[in-house]
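thought: user wants a sequence for this fold. calling inverse folding tool.
action: design(structure=
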């Protein structure tokens, strides 16, 4: 999460081109697609994320096992044609658990990431636009959550609030994952507060809620998207960590609970390495998908980060040698 925050933390001073107008709003979606399509890392992230989305939506395409928790096979079988990744110490198919576990892992990442981003937008932009005492109070709240050690706080909250509940898990991730985005969005909103198009809206007598939603937010789309990706990455890794520690619901099927049961049954010591490697690799790949996609949204928000075409680099090199 801190790596993503570092990439997107620098607020870019908006230029006149960033002032919203009807034509630019109509092309906003095409700009996002061009940025993703023109960035190899972003395309790799999009493909990885699409694979996981398909696995979560229709797991039946990848496995014929309908109940991954059912103990229907011989214990601790090695990988074979019938069981691609072997079976667990309880007689469950590892591949089936991996496929079905994608749904819960991705659901928590998207929901927690979206809610944390919404909270970041509400607190960060409101603080910057309102100023004065509201800004001081909201900024103090943000700073408090920034300096508190996150993971120990997560463990304490999850343990005492009943971490086995999916709702509690999501709430914990949102509470501890919004402050980075709020700080970034406040910095960017402060640079926009005195722009001409906002002054015009105030002169027209528009309400503060209208100005924030329809004037400020459209100019910060790429930064909000980057914050969502960072929050989702944070949720993926933290969720897996909590479930590995036994603070999730051990009867649920997710990558974190797979690691929990593998560790409890000493999978590596008993020759069941894929029980550990497979969910760990999927967690890493899903996190990489969110991180790689973040490159495209960084480039939309900051043109200085966009790659220079090869022809232009060659021309610049020739001019420098003259």
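)
observation: tool returned 322 residues.
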């Amino acid at each position: 999460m801190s790596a993503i925050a570092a990439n997107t933390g620098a607020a870019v001073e908006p230029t006149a081109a960033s002032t919203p107008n009807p034509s630019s709003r109509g092309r906003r979606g095409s700009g996002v697609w061009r940025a993703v399509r023109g960035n190899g890392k972003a395309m790799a992230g999009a493909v990885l994320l699409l694979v996981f989305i398909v696995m979560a939506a229709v797991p039946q395409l990848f496995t014929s096992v309908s109940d991954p928790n059912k103990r229907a096979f011989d214990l601790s079988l090695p990988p074979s044609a019938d069981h691609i990744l072997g079976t667990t110490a309880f007689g469950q198919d590892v591949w089936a658990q991996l496929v079905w576990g994608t749904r819960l892992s991705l659901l928590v990442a998207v929901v927690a990431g979206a809610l944390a981003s919404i909270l970041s937008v509400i607190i960060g932009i409101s603080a910057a636009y309102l100023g004065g005492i509201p800004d001081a109070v909201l900024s103090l709240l943000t700073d408090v959550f920034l300096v508190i050690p996150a993971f120990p706080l997560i463990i304490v909250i999850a343990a005492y609030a009943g971490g086995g509940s999916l709702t509690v898990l999501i709430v914990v991730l949102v509470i501890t994952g919004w402050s980075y985005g709020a700080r970034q969005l406040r910095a960017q909103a402060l640079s926009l507060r005195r722009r001409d198009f906002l002054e015009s809206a105030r002169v027209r007598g528009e309400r503060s809620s209208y100005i924030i939603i329809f004037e400020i937010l459209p100019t910060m789309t790429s930064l909000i998207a980057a914050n969502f990706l960072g929050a989702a990455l944070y949720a993926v890794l933290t969720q897996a960590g909590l479930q590995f520690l036994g603070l999730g619901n051990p009867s649920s099927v997710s990558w974190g609970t797979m690691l929990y049961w593998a560790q409890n049954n000493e999978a590596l010591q008993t020759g069941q390495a894929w029980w550990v490697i497979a969910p760990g690799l999927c967690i890493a790949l899903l996190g990489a998908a969110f991180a790689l996609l973040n490159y495209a949204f960084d480039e939309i928000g900051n043109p200085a980060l966009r790659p220079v075409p090869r022809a232009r680099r060659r021309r610049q090199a020739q001019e420098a040698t003259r």
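thought: summarizing for user.
answer: Here is the designed sequence. The mean pLDDT is 81.
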